[in-house]
Amino acid sequence: MSGIIHPPESVYNLLPREEDDPHKPPRYVSKFRPAVLIETKTKKHSMRTMGPAAVEAPSPHNYLKSHSKESKSAEKAEYSKEARHSCTQKKPPVPARTDVPPVVFHTGKNFIKTVKIVPMKPKPAACIDIKGYKQVLEDSGLVPKYTKKKDYGEVPKYLQQRSQEQQRAQEDFENFVKDHREQAALTNLSEERRQAVLEGLKKTWDQLHHEYQCLPLVTETMSQKSHRQQLETKMTQVENDIKLIQRFKTIYVPKYTPKYREDYVRETTSQKEPMRSIGPLKVPRSSPKNYLKKQRKQPKAPQGERHVCDERKPLIPDSKNKLQLLRKKIDYVTTAIAEQRCTDRSRPQAIADSHKGHKYFPENSGLFPQHVHKKDYGKVPAYLRQRASEERNKLEGDCIQLHEQKEHAIRKRLQNQSDALLGLRRVWYQIASETSRIPLSMESSLIRSYKQRLEDKLLWVENSFKCAQKCLEKMS
């Protein structure tokens, strides 16, 4: 360790040593340097800045100088004598004798009369205060304004049209319901059709029986058992249908065949129309905006002419017509006031509201009985009574229809259960008669379980049949 820090002395250490001068290599310069410089110079923009768009950079020649941002006073304008003179400009020279004089057109129109302003006449008013406060008669309500109109007290045309459309829609809906009920009504089954149905049922029973006879005697797998059970249920159903048709000669069936039948589904899918909609045919209803158009049903005027409606008034081009119209209006108001004064000799009653004499009419004050003396005061309006009766009749009709539907459903269920009960009894009697011949020692557990299952099912069907009979008795 000491040898490393203090190396051993030697004579050779006193010899001068040549110091190695490290030679610096030349700087690396790429051979593509001149091409890059040329390319950067060509693509360089003088005013382009880095980052977002900025304002145009100031020129380096116009550098900021001292006192350059201080406000300066306006420079003094130069004095000129020509700008101070107030003489008028030279007029054109007098025309010579040989020049053609200008043409002047003379008219007989009196411009002074036409330019004169017609004085505006005041509107008819009435004083309602001791201080002389006036109120315009037209807006006061004392002069009849709306009662003199032609269509006063009549139902508007657009409301009549709307009520007619509603009535038409209600009639269409009632016709649709009536047709639907007629389709759902019962019809008598003809003898030919009855025989055809009976033959078809017998053929199906023969096919099922043949398939049943082809089954093996021993059913080992679950699929064989389920297939055998399905065949037996189908055969019993077909036998019940055959007995029902043979028992009754007059049979009533609905016009509309139920959709859960396979044959009917096959027929409807083959004869299905792609664009047929459900329900009654929907006629496009007119827009409510067309009710307010007054000239909707009137013929269009030819091109170049303007059609003037009876309710529109023609334009008044001349001021004389305006004066005549204003005079007629004033005469009408004055005559109305005179008629009112002749008929009502006494002034309208008024009540002083304060010591200053402010008055108001007692009719609108609420102090005098106005609505109490009416004939129908305190009674239910006629339209409300009519609406309540319509709602009551509709509710009764819905209740009756619902009751009929419930009764029909219970009868159908009762018929189905009675048919099922007869079929189960017949099967149970057959199995009991067949198994009675077999001695008890040879009777297998499978036959016993099958008989027990049939007895349970028979008991359940009997109970449901009794419940349906009780419901039908309560409804009747």
UniProtKB/TrEMBL annotation:
Which UniProt key words apply to this protein? Cell projection, Cytoplasm, Cytoskeleton
Source organism, top-level taxon: Eukaryota
A GO MF label = calmodulin binding
Q: Where in the cell is it found?
A: Cell projection, Cilium; Cytoplasm, Cytoskeleton
Residue ranges of the region described as Disordered: 1-101, 267-313
Q: Where is there biased composition of kind Basic and acidic residues?
A: 67-85, 303-313
Q: Does the keyword Cytoplasm apply?
A: yes
Q: Which InterPro entries match?
A: Enkurin_dom, Enkurin_domain-protein
Could you state one GO cellular component term attached to this entry? axonemal microtubule
The answer to whether keyword Cytoplasm applies is yes
Domain named Enkurin: which ranges? 161-253
Q: Name one Pfam family in it.
A: Enkurin
Q: What is this protein called?
A: Enkurin
Q: Native species of this protein? A: Takifugu flavidus (sansaifugu)
